[in-house]
Amino acid sequence: MDSYEQVESYIGEIPRFTKKTKVDNTKILLERLGNPDKKYKAVHIAGTNGKGSVAKMMSLLLEGSGNKTGLFTSPHLVKINERFCINGVDIPDDRLVELFNRVMAAVEECLEDVKCSESSDEWTFQHPAYFEFIFCMAALYFAEEGCDYVVFETGLGGRLDATNVIIPEVSIITSIGFDHMQYLGNTIEEIAGEKAGIIKQGVPVVYNTGDDRADRVIEAKADSLGSDFFRVPDYWDGLSEETKKEVMANVSVEIPYQIENVHTAVTAWNVLKGNEVSDYDALKRFYWPGRMEYILPNVIIDGAHNEDAIKEFIKAIKCEQVAKSKSKLSLMFAVSSDKDYESIIKMLCEGLEPEDVYVTEIASDRKTDVGEVVKLFQKYLPEEKNYNVVGNSNLERTFDLSTREMDDNTLLAIVGSLYMVGEVKELLEKK
């Protein structure tokens, strides 16, 4: 393919014509590409919430100590290039096209091998799934650019994730809660078991799940593999007060859940570097788009989209209201249909009591009907506020209305979906 637009279109269509593959599928494709995933040291991160922030913090600490550092994260907000980052710089469009063509050629060779072999009832190579294809592009990119370290964030889960071919220097598991239950299980223990699937034999694991049940699953898995395990709250408590002060003096975040992520990253960094004296100055550069981010004066956008993330979002928004002296709060909301969105809406209504709610839809086949969401807000808000809930499937019109109706005492929070975060940011860039 010749253009970025063609590549983006093809990759975007992959979920329509292929299904989730096995990790063996990824291994076959990487072998065809020369095993690029084995040409640098890696850090591997899984979790329900916080894994992207911790990945960014780890990449900053590695860069700050003089390493050429790759960072692979998901999802992207505006452009797919965001997923492939080296020392803070996203991959250029032309390089993305080149990598796509080379991975596509390797896919076609592997498919041709299958076609030429004798038919069998056993599993054979198939076209890689969406995330798998992108991961293989990233693995090749980081190898060819000579990265010393690469920080890989899992997509969904861990055990069956395409990134799980990696043998890292350290594994990290962040908070664990209820999300993607149709794939990962209906109990904390089942979900933790999927996340713990990234633990490798003899590789230390750092974990900050926020749940004793999840901790026990991770500890049992690590113990069975002979891997050292480090529970973040215990490790952090054991640090000297001098070290704690040094870390927090170099942190540019005040939101409680991001401070937890700092503790996780610092613990992992110390485990990785063998507790040598460290300079945490690199954390001053931490910035993670779409997480409690001001996109306009008094307009915050946040990608919280499950119960645990919404719980932290509510705390953070209340702090911002006090800090900015805003007596009123408005919400712009959209959500994916595979989320427990009634619980999320109930939490927002009871925890924040918004003055106005503007409901819209994401541009995805996973969108939730505006009318259904409006009714849920009306169900959980006080009856006298029902007329303050409006719905419009056009995101741009909803955004314009929500910002136009603000007054000086209002804080507008846009929340419910990372897809919406990307669409709003793209909309602002165009404007």
Question: How would you sum up this structure in a few lines?
Answer:
By secondary structure, this protein is of the alpha/beta class. The chain has helices at residues 4-17, 23-32, 51-64, 93-116, 130-144, 181-184, 188-195, 212-224, 232-238, 241-249, 256-272, 307-324, 341-352, 370-380, 395-404, 418-430; strands at residues 41-46, 69-72, 84-86, 89-90, 149-153, 170-173, 205-207, 229-231, 293-296, 299-301, 328-333, 356-359, 389-391, 410-415.
The number of E-state strands comes to 14
- Spell the H/E element sequence: HHEHEEEHHEEHHEHEHHHEEHEHEHEHEH
Tell me the radius of gyration. Answer: 22 Å
Average predicted confidence as pLDDT: 93
For the biggest β-sheet, the strand order reads 4-3-2-5-1-6-7-8
Unreliably modeled segments: none
| Helix-and-strand structural type | alpha/beta
In angstroms, what separates the terminal alpha carbons? 30 Å
Number of helices: 16
Q: Per DSSP, what share of the residues sits in E-state strands of 2 or more residues?
A: 5-15%
Largest sheet: 8 strands, mixed
Helix percent band: 40-55%
How would the global form be characterised?
A: globular
